[in-house]
Design a protein that fits this description.
heterodimer; A: alpha+beta; SH3 type barrels; five-stranded antiparallel sheet; 5 strands; 31% helix; B: alpha/beta; Rossmann fold; 13 strands; 17% strand; globular
């Protein structure tokens, strides 16, 4: 759960720009990239993922080093990958007037 | 993997080790704490201590959120799971951690519906699929996972989900470091600062450590050379009479952290007046709860939670291990009654716990530590 795992952005959801399909060691799943909204995120970019959320953008060199660290710790990484493989993050539907992101944008909090 | 070699080059490591040895004042002992469980792993996996002169020792800190959770909170979570129509969801790391009345696995075997999830967003999906059930997410972790919980609560609110709540056990790293600095048990000379937590909070919150307490802190990466370089940077500060916060891991850690992540935490959560930490006791303003405006998503408000304090098993010395007062193999039950298969204490359960790291790398005694690492 504490492990940050590196992945690459495969595609960003057209309707939900805070969701993206990522590739982690060949496993492709949907994750949330809403915490990177202050950065430009594009397909091919490397990111560090914590429990279904991208927490930071990294470069390829850092991704390789993070991967080497994870492979070195063995079972904990395998468990994390298995957990990711079981993940089924989906979009869901927003109720009218409840979009906090939109509220922030309008109020400029 | 050409990149990785640069972080693992044995010649570079030896060169750094020589520089480190050169910085040590004759006759002086140095004690540095690595706060994060990830660093503990790197140190034992790669035998970093072998590269360090005898004068420098590394002690493990409280940076494993599973390890510091008191048993009573696990009992509370199980008490929630036992109520009508509840599905409790949890990260896999928590499932085997023993509470006063057994673990989540034990409770599940006894008939409660406790499910492992990868992400709080998976818990949200379970809530959407089960509108007639009450889905509770066991939220745990330092600032690395708190933004995920916050984002999920915001999402639940936006979707108008009424059957989703979180049992909030998020803790914050700064008060724990402060408690260790204030503790008379241990005299430290500097800190290897956490990596991923700092991605969120940045480097500024550590300022009081260097300025008020006069201890250098260097945020470090997880590769062996990162850790060695951080030790070098701390020693260099001490030699030059400086005490600052430095960022060795700037390739991932921005000085100001992740502003959006801090914003969502602040929107949904506030500090509790105090919270109990295993081994460290009650620490004021050290944990997060949902704000009153999000009470509809707070399992502690929705459910009847016993909140009973449970004493740790007498034989278990996780507390001393978490404070860095003893090494794991100095604990009476380490490797005998307490193993990763049959853990007594949390430090042995979590793969990032110091005891599990020692056990998995075969470091059972001081002698054995030296044998293994010199092999």
């Amino acid at each position: 759960m504490c492990l940050g795992i590196p992945g690459t952005i495969v595609e960003i959801d057209g309707d939900r720009p805070d969701l993206a399909k990522v590739d982690v060691s060949g496993v492709r799943r949907m994750i949330n990239i809403g915490l990177l909204e202050n950065e430009i995120v594009e397909p091919g970019d490397w990111i560090l993922i914590h429990v279904g959320f991208a927490l930071s953008k990294i470069d390829e060199e850092e991704a390789a080093s993070a991967m080497a660290f994870l492979e070195g710790i063995g079972t904990a990484y395998e468990e994390e990958l298995a957990a990711l493989a079981s993940s089924e993050i989906e979009a869901g539907f927003i109720q009218a007037g409840q979009d906090i992101e939109a509220r922030w944008a309008s109020e400029e909090v | 993997m050409r990149f990785v070699d640069e972080f693992r080059d044995a010649d570079l490591a030896r060169a750094l080790a020589t520089q480190i040895a050169g910085l040590c004042e004759p006759g002086r002992k140095y004690k540095f704490m690595e706060v994060c469980g990830g660093h503990t792993h790197t140190i034992y996996k790669h035998g970093i201590e072998d590269y360090l002169p005898e004068a420098v020792s590394l002690v493990h800190g409280p940076g494993c959120p599973v390890c510091v959770l008191p048993m009573g909170r696990i009992d509370d979570a199980i008490a929630i799971a036992e109520q009508d129509d509840v599905i409790l969801t949890s990260f896999g790391d928590m499932m085997r951690v023993p509470g006063g009345r057994g673990s989540f696995f034990d409770s599940k075997a006894a008939g409660t519906d406790i499910r492992m999830v990868y992400s709080p967003l998976d818990a949200l999906k379970i809530a959407r699929q089960n509108p007639d059930k009450r889905v509770v997410f066991m939220a745990i972790g330092f600032e690395t996972t708190a933004p995920s919980t916050a984002m999920t609560v915001l999402r639940a609110k936006a979707e108008g989900l009424e059957n989703f709540s979180i049992f909030c056990n998020h803790v914050t790293i700064i008060p724990a470091i402060k408690a260790i600095l204030d503790s008379p048990d241990l005299r430290l000379d500097g800190f290897i600062g956490p990596g991923h937590v700092s991605t969120v909070i940045g480097c500024r919150p550590y300022h009081f450590i260097s300025h008020t307490h006069g201890k250098p802190l260097v945020c470090a990466g997880f590769e062996p050379l990162d850790v060695l370089q951080s030790v070098y940077m701390i020693l260099k500060q001490l030699t030059e009479g400086r005490s600052e916060v430095e960022n060795q891991y700037s390739r991932v850690v921005p000085w100001d952290g992740n502003v959006k992540a801090l914003q969502v935490i602040n929107e949904t959560m506030e500090l509790r007046p105090y919270f109990e930490w295993r081994g460290l006791g009650f620490i004021s303003q050290s944990a997060l709860k949902l704000r009153d405006s999000y009470a509809a998503y707070d399992a502690e408000v929705i459910f009847d939670v016993p909140g009973v304090r449970v004493a740790d098993p007498k034989a278990c010395q996780c507390g001393e291990v978490l404070k860095g007062v003893i090494k794991p193999y100095e604990c009476k039950v380490f490797g005998t009654a307490c193993t990763p298969e049959t853990p007594i204490g949390t430090c042995m359960v979590s793969s990032e716990g110091a005891c599990a790291a020692y056990y998995n790398f075969g470091r059972f005694t001081r002698k054995r530590v030296m044998e293994v690492t010199s092999a």
